[in-house]
Write a structure and sequence with these properties.
With about 200 residues, this protein is mainly α. It has a single domain, classed as Tetratricopeptide repeat domain (Serine Threonine Protein Phosphatase 5, Tetratricopeptide repeat, Alpha Horseshoe), CATH 1.25.40.10. Helices cover about 65% and strands about 0% of the residues. The protein has 10 helices and no strands. The protein is globular and about 50 Å long. The mean pLDDT is about 95.
Length: about 200
């Protein structure tokens, strides 16, 4: 067994249907539960620390290892270090890693649902060109989705567009300001009172 397989098994589960996997794992991926964060910390905290320190680069010689490395840099810190600046500490490493792999076509070796978690790296960026890259990638993913999966991938595309609109408007995500010690503008404070302003 490759060292990244336990993480991928935990993240995606046993099902092969994208709709079934998403239904079973949605709360893990996008929910905020203390017990999930604790499990991530207990099972994979050491690997996250290694990845954040620049280790595990050898994993990215394999498309599935590359995916796992992206999860360790982009997704798991948001769980393990939730509501602290460290939640975003892996973004600067994840972004060039994701870009390199997409440029080389490694994402095409993954399932469509696995590719979502590569493209989320661009969606998380406080950077307009990367947000536009996210829209293009999620748009392509939606365009190639099977009939039974169109609604699922349309949802991912919708979230990508919502992220893009925020960066177009503010050049950053206002909901991160408090965590990162940034001063919010009056416009951002008004925006944060709106439904759907936080992810």
């Amino acid at each position: 067994m490759q060292p990244w397989e336990p993480l991928l098994d935990w993240w995606f589960g046993p099902s092969t249907s994208a709709v079934d996997v998403a239904a079973a794992r949605n709360t893990l991926w996008f929910g905020k539960r203390d017990e999930q964060d604790a499990e991530a910390r207990e099972r994979f905290g050491d690997l996250v620390e290694q990845a954040l320190a620049g280790g595990l680069q050898e994993w990215s010689a394999d498309s599935r290892g590359w995916l796992a490395n992206i999860l360790l840099l982009d997704q798991l810190p948001r769980m393990i270090y939730r509501d602290t600046p460290l939640a975003f500490a892996g973004d600067a490493l994840a972004q060039p890693l994701a870009e390199e792999g997409v440029t080389l076509g490694w994402d095409r070796q993954l399932s469509p649902l696995q590719r979502v978690f590569i493209y989320l790296v661009f969606e998380h960026a406080e950077n307009l060109p990367q947000q536009r890259r996210s829209m293009q990638l999620f748009g392509d993913l939606h365009a190639s989705a099977a009939d039974g999966e169109l609604k699922l991938f349309a949802g991912f595309l919708d979230y990508a567009e919502r992220h893009l609109r925020i960066i177009e408007r503010f050049a950053r995500f206002p909901h991160r300001n408090e965590t990162l010690g940034r001063v919010s503008t009056d416009a951002e404070l008004r925006f944060l009172l709106e439904p759907g302003s936080r992810f």
